[in-house]
Amino acid sequence: MAETSEVTARDSLRRVLANRNLRRVQLAFFGSVTGDWAYATALTVWAYTQGGAAAVGAFTAARFVAMAVAGPLGAAVADKVSRKSFMIVTDLVRAGMVSGAAVIVAVDGPAFLVYGLGVLTAMVGAPFRSAQAGLIPKLVNRPDELTASNAVAANLENIATFAGPALGALLVGLYDVEPVFWLNVATYLWSFALVVSIRVPDEASDDATNGEPEDEEEGFLTTITAGFSTVARDGDLRTVSLLAAAQGFVWGALTVFMVIIAIEMLETGPAGVGYLDAVMGGAVTIGGVIVLSRVAKGRLGQDMAIGVLGWALPLIVLAVFPSPVTAIAALAIIGLADPWVNLGFETIPQRISPENVISRVYGAVESALIGAMALGAVTAPILIRWIGFEESMAVVGVLVAAYTLTTLRRMRRLDARLTEPTSLPLLRSIPLFAPLSPSTLETLAHQLTPVSVSAGHRILLEGEASDRFYVIASGTVEVSHDDRLLRTESAGDFFGEIGLLRDVPRTATVTAVTDTELFALERHDFLTAVTGVGEARQAAEEVVSRRLAV
Fold first, then answer.
1. Could you report the per-residue pLDDT of 51-103, keeping only the tens digit for each?
2. Distance separating alpha carbons of residues 344 and 223, to the nearest angstrom
3. Taking a C-beta distance cutoff of 8 angstroms, is the pair 432, 261 a contact?
4. Which domains does the chain have, with CATH numbers?
5. Taking the C-alpha atoms of 287, 288, 292 and 297 in order, what is their torsion angle to the nearest 10 degrees?
């Protein structure tokens, strides 16, 4: 079994690295995240030298609040413009801001400017991940490649989370904070160069409204809240968001619990928090490799729920059996579970969100996570003063575990929704849909309705209202106009597009010659997919012109 998992993990990594565009996105992401962590470490050290622990706390809180606010706002912009261009501009703006901060520190300029630039840099960078989440589905060839890409990204982020602070601390110790600032500038320029070289399919359409017709009546409030409203309408997205929040709540509370575990349970003092972080970090890396081996199993929803349980249950055990050994084991299990949550959190919104709001949906789910982290960090001290330390861990663990158990059935159903539909290869074979992204094609495949007709049945009647597009799965049909046979179609062919695209009644009658199996796509779903992408719209118009000329 271990050997099979290893091969699967290797195959997942190979699949991502073989895709030129995905490879460049991942390398850009890894470089900038490493630089971000190094920069954050240097800023923290600099803030401590300026104003002590109070300055560190105030500055850190300001950055997180700014990121929580800016994330959804920036994601709304990313969904309305080219996501690639958004990422490019973000890299350049952040490089300029950090360069300014480095110069100010070097000349011993006003501290408030460094703080201000640090907060602004965090605000500008907050929606970068959301834009990337919306771009990646356009770069993959298959849905499972998207999952593999996110699994690889999670592992790279795990490495960056430890390499960045270590590199930042090393450079600050050897030199000063300014070299770390310039290192971060270099990583932004590295990311910029890689993102510029990415080729996005149908990039001209991406430069407009990310492949969807723009709604001229959509107001500012509707635009910025679209991600939250999409999550609210979709029960699966809502559950994913709440599970992310559940993990965030434990995470926020754990930041408080870990200090007490280090000081009172391990008796190592505040330095023990670093040791505990190292235990979790090592376990997260191992968990990331395990997740890579599960990419092909198709259990994103179920695995995400299990991962949240992996955060909650160890707290209950630690509350019941408090000891140094239990503490280390509990944190190791939490570390192993973290990538299971992250893969679902990263991938599920990309798979089931409408393409034109992917970035905003991702931003909404991320906001739920960040907000819950803040709530957990605020709630933990109150609980500790009210009922005690062990009891507080038990309450947090029980509440989150109880909620997560109620989601298991829905998350299993979600996995069925994420399973590749049997009709997807048929859609892929139709030239009309060739320009569409894999995520859009998968969504269309889920929207298809099977229709069975017997020989002699009239499927469409000339002059009637145009309401559906049809694809032939098996059987043969005849297409006629004014009792004149125009053509015969069989498996893999399609009909019904002319009336939908031109918004006119049916221009021909379609009759089944044999017993025929069809897939039907409703008018709105067909038009949204085809008319929103430039190359698909052009291909559709060419088909219409060719058929009308007969």
1. 765 666 567 667 777 787 888 788 878 877 888 889 999 999 999 999 999 99
2. 25
3. no
4. 1-200 (1.20.1250.20), 225-418 (1.20.1250.20), 424-548 (2.60.120.10)
5. 50
